[in-house]
């Protein structure tokens, strides 16, 4: 198995004596480890998943898992990669957030609901959320990935105040929406089509991302 | 222990020979069972909690638990009673939903956040949500209680279209908000005061409860 060969010295930089093709061998091994990790995190939960178990499922040495991904926490974060569909559309969404058009909310909600509906992207998302619900550490990583990758750039581009609060309000709303539609399967949400649901939810997300929020009080009252 | 005496024939109707004071004895026993059930559902999860374990914790016969509460599902539903503070304010909230004042969203969000913040009501709510997250059946009961008791009357009073969708969108948003603030403890939500957070979230809840929603398409597209 090619994946057990000693890995390159530092990340993707290769020594000159490295045989041709090893890069794609590493890529395949890395993908196999990631797939095994996603499966285990989703079925056994985060807490019960070990690097050793992931290595066994991927048929590689545990040291190789550590080499490619670092700690279990890092490995989980790596499995929470966003689907290409989303990352490809993100620049366009971000540029939309820069002007005040009432369209960013609609586009992000439609894209998000579409991703959940497509099995190729929806199943990994559901696995992530289920894992996140079962373990506070996993939830923390999930939150960081989602907010930094999607909502952070959107809010930064909008240049509005209170970016952290905006991001968090939009994120908790969107995750709650997907939980209701795809994990709890609540009929009013499962029976609504994507376009209809998008039209209902977009104003709220638009409000959080780019709308006027009341300023925080001078002395924060708890 | 008075609670183990044979229970009345049908619910709260008593035979004439029933000793005076047995009603309050029943009440105390019932309360003790409920308290034990809340504790076990919250710590052991719904799936791992049995009627027998609840009976043992409350120091009563399992048959008495069945007599008072029916099945485990019914018992869980009974533990998910809303705090008195909320039910007392509900009629006023509902009458507010009948007019179109932009105040229902603000009042329901503030009351909801206040309940989560007070230990006496917040801890049971957190236990319910944690239990709901750990078990689909528990989640279903939790959802039914919350939507029927709080949001259902609000939306019904508003007389708006698509009540089920409105209720579900508001409920998933509110539950997600409390999860973010009180279970995941996300800093932008924990650092915001109740008044500030209420002012941020109220427009979205108002939108879902009484605002104009786009009509569903004639032939629902999935």
Topology at a glance:
Two copies of one chain form a homodimer.
Chain A: H1 22-44, H2 51-58, H3 62-69, H4 72-79, H5 84-98, H6 104-117, H7 119-134, H8 136-158, H9 163-183, H10 187-190, H11 194-210
Helix pairs in contact in A: 1-2, 1-4, 1-7, 2-3, 5-6, 5-8, 6-7, 6-11, 7-8, 8-9, 9-11
Oligomeric state of the chains?
A: homodimer
CATH arch. level architecture of the largest domain in chain A: Orthogonal Bundle
Q: Which CATH C-level class of the largest domain in chain A is it?
A: Mainly Alpha
Structural class estimated from helices and strands of chain A: mainly alpha
Notes on the protein architecture:
Two copies of one chain form a homodimer. Helix content of chain A is 71%, strand content 0%. The longest helix of chain A has 23 residues. Chain A is built from eleven helices and no strands. Chain A has two domains: 67 residues, Homeodomain-like (Arc Repressor Mutant, subunit A, Orthogonal Bundle); 127 residues, Tetracycline Repressor, domain 2 (Orthogonal Bundle), CATH 1.10.357. Chain A is an all-alpha fold. Chains A and B meet through helix 8, helix 9, helix 10 and helix 11 of A and helix 8, helix 9, helix 10 and helix 11 of B.
């Amino acid at each position: 198995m090619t994946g057990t060969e000693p890995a390159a010295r530092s990340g993707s930089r290769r020594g000159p004596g490295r045989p041709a093709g090893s890069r794609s061998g590493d890529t395949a091994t890395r993908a196999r480890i990631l797939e095994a990790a996603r499966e285990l995190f989703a079925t056994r939960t985060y807490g019960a998943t070990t690097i050793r178990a992931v290595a066994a499922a991927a048929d590689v040495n545990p040291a190789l898992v550590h080499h490619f991904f670092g700690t279990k926490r890092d490995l989980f974060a790596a499995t929470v990669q966003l689907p290409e569909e989303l990352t490809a559309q993100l620049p366009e969404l971000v540029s939309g957030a820069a002007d005040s058009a009432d369209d960013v909310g609609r586009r992000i909600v439609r894209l998000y609901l579409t991703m959940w509906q497509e099995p190729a992207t929806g199943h990994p998302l559901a696995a992530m959320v289920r894992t996140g619900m079962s373990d506070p550490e996993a939830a923390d990583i999930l939150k960081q990935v989602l907010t930094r990758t999607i909502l952070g750039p959107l809010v930064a581009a909008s240049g509005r105040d209170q970016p952290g609060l905006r991001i968090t309000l939009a994120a908790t709303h969107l995750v709650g929406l997907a939980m209701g539609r795809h994990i709890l399967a609540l009929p009013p949400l499962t029976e609504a089509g994507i376009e209809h649901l998008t039209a209902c939810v977009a104003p709220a997300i638009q409000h959080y991302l780019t709308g006027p929020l009341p300023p925080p009080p001078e002395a924060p009252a708890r």
